[in-house]
Write a structure and sequence with these properties.
Elements lengths: L2 E10 L3 E4 H5 L6 H8 L3 E4 L6 H16 L8 E5 L10 H9 L5 E5 L5 H15 L4 E9 L9 H4 L4 E11 L11 E9 L7 E3 L12 E3 L1 H23 L8 E4 L4 H11 L10 H4 L6 H11 L8 E8 L3 E8 L1
Parallel strand pairs: 4-5, 4-6, 11-12
Antiparallel strand pairs: 1-7, 2-3, 6-7, 8-13, 9-10, 12-13
């Protein structure tokens, strides 16, 4: 196989919406403070009966519908999440069972906010080897369940949700050129030395607790702008294109200021950047596929467009993928 192409997208959000004003009634913050520093206006918060697996399953069903496929057509499921339903088994196996396509490959990827980039590169590689013909790649999170709701510097930033894509392997007869549909190039990185800048202070082996998210926001911002611009340049070079050839950037929706700074560093017009952080906040591994689905369904991203996906998360991990839709 020469690569994989995008067949469909889907997303799912919890019913409950929490506005900045609602948060301001509970902690020392304000709508103006949050919007000015992050661009976030609201977030969705999972309720009773809503879990990472249920959101992932809903997004997967919508992606399958968009692709005109059934669960029986899927031989590989990769779920990117930092908030699995259980320590084990993998959330992907719960999604597989809910869809009714047991017997194929199903596993989770843990790379936090970069998880979807790691998952899509992994699925693309497996499809190239012939391990499966079609894959569901899902980013799904319930970050509200690892937040310290008394820490105004972090609890205002995150929300819950899921996004999914369907990929299909392309045969040897398909020319994988920059003008052909498919994933053209991907790059992934990690730097474990930055662990203490963004992490959760719990875990089965260390504290036997779930723990809460901890972040040094200013340092994360600085690393994000540099790392993301660097990896985007790498993918652009690998694909043999220029930044001006890119129709859309679909970035991790962490902070509007990071999105603006990264686009400026690349010389890409802000109107080419898909922004959903105002509606969904930071949904970690779900944010890239969520934004991709929104932009495809509202007509911004059209067949033939050249789209760059990028993200950075705790670890640090970061990566980017370029695809022709």
């Amino acid at each position: 196989m020469t690569g994989s192409r995008l067949l469909g997208t889907g997303s799912a959000l919890p019913e409950r919406i929490v506005t900045n004003d609602e948060l301001a009634a509970q902690i020392d913050t304000s709508d103006e403070w949050i919007v000015e520093r992050t661009g976030i206006r609201q977030r969705h918060i999972a309720g009773d009966g809503e879990t990472t697996a249920t959101l992932a399953t809903d997004a997967a069903r919508k992606a399958l519908d968009d692709a005109g496929l059934t669960p029986a057509d899927i031989g590989l499921i990769v779920v990117a999440t930092a908030t699995p339903d259980n320590t084990f088994p993998a959330t992907a196996t719960k999604v597989q069972n809910a869809l009714g396509c047991n017997g194929g490959i199903a596993f989770d990827v843990a790379a936090v906010c970069s998880g979807f980039l790691y998952a899509i590169a992994t699925a693309d590689s497996l499809l190239k080897t012939g391990m499966a013909t079609r894959a569901l790649v899902i980013g799904a999170e319930t970050f509200s369940r690892i937040l310290d709701w008394e820490d105004r510097t972090t609890c205002v930033l995150f929300g819950d949700g899921a996004g999914a894509v369907v990929l299909e392997a392309q045969g040897e007869g398909t020319q994988q050129a920059s003008d052909a549909p498919g994933i053209l190039a991907s790059r992934l990185h990690a730097d474990g030395a930055q662990h203490d800048l963004l992490y959760v202070d719990g875990g089965p082996s260390s504290t036997q607790t779930v723990g809460h998210l901890r972040m040094k926001g200013r340092e994360v911002f600085r690393h994000a702008v540099v790392n993301l611009s660097d990896v985007l340049h790498e993918v652009i070079e690998d694909a043999g294109i220029s930044a001006g050839d890119i129709d859309w950037i679909v970035p991790h929706q962490a902070n509007k200021r990071i999105l603006d700074a990264t686009a400026k560093k690349l010389g890409i017009a802000p109107e080419k950047v898909v922004v959903t952080v105002d509606r969904h906040a930071n949904t970690s591994a779900a944010s890239v596929p969520l934004a991709l689905d929104v932009a495809r369904r509202d007509g911004r991203i059209k067949p033939g467009d050249l789209v760059m996906l990028e993200a950075m998360g705790g670890g640090f991990t970061w990566g980017a993928s370029l695809l022709r839709v």
